[in-house]
Specification:
The protein has 152 residues and is mostly helical. It has one domain (25-138). It has helices at 3-19, 33-45, 51-54, 76-88, 94-100, 107-114, 124-134, 145-148. The longest helix is centred in the first third of the chain and has 17 residues, at 3-19. The N and C termini lie far apart (98 Å).
Length: 152
């Protein structure tokens, strides 16, 4: 084989290999065609997240969070701060943060989340704004001696 034929052969092999689903980063799981079909089905059923968030790959080092599930009775800011701190240990990918956040909810808050309209959450900021707004009344009230004067 002359050098020109060898170069063409290598180029052909490279093109063939690139058409396959080969992980570009070994620390990230790649999305297969079956996963994409599942995402499309989920969108038809009305998943709260946009396609970009649903399609965000999960890192291979994922172990899950050690966070107490939020039940709606405590400070939502505190829950969010713990969540952000733990997620930063794994990734800074906000789409992945969106996917993981509902796993830290239980009972009422999880029911609240599942009632979002289809494809209505497109960013972590949007999700946290909705969360904080919904559970703002669970924040602790700071009372002072002056506020006691208003009690009748």
């Amino acid at each position: 084989m002359n050098p020109e034929q060898e170069e063409q052969s290598q180029t052909s092999n490279l093109a063939t290999n690139q058409s396959k689903t080969i992980p570009s980063r070994p620390d990230i799981l790649q999305t297969s065609r079956n996963d994409l079909d599942l995402v499309e089905e989920e969108e038809k059923r009305g998943h709260s997240f946009t396609y970009e968030i649903i399609n965000a790959p999960l890192t291979l080092v994922w172990k899950g969070l050690t966070i107490k599930p939020y039940d709606g009775s405590t400070n939502p800011d505190k829950h969010l701060n713990i969540f952000k701190t733990q997620m930063t240990l794994y990734t800074i990918d906000k789409a992945l943060w969106c996917k993981v956040f509902p796993t830290t909810l239980q009972e009422g808050p999880l029911g609240w989340f599942t009632k979002f309209p289809a494809c209505s959450v497109g960013s972590f900021k949007e999700l946290t704004t909705k969360f904080i707004t919904q559970y703002a009344t669970s924040r602790p009230r700071h009372t002072s001696s002056l506020s006691l004067l208003n009690v009748k």
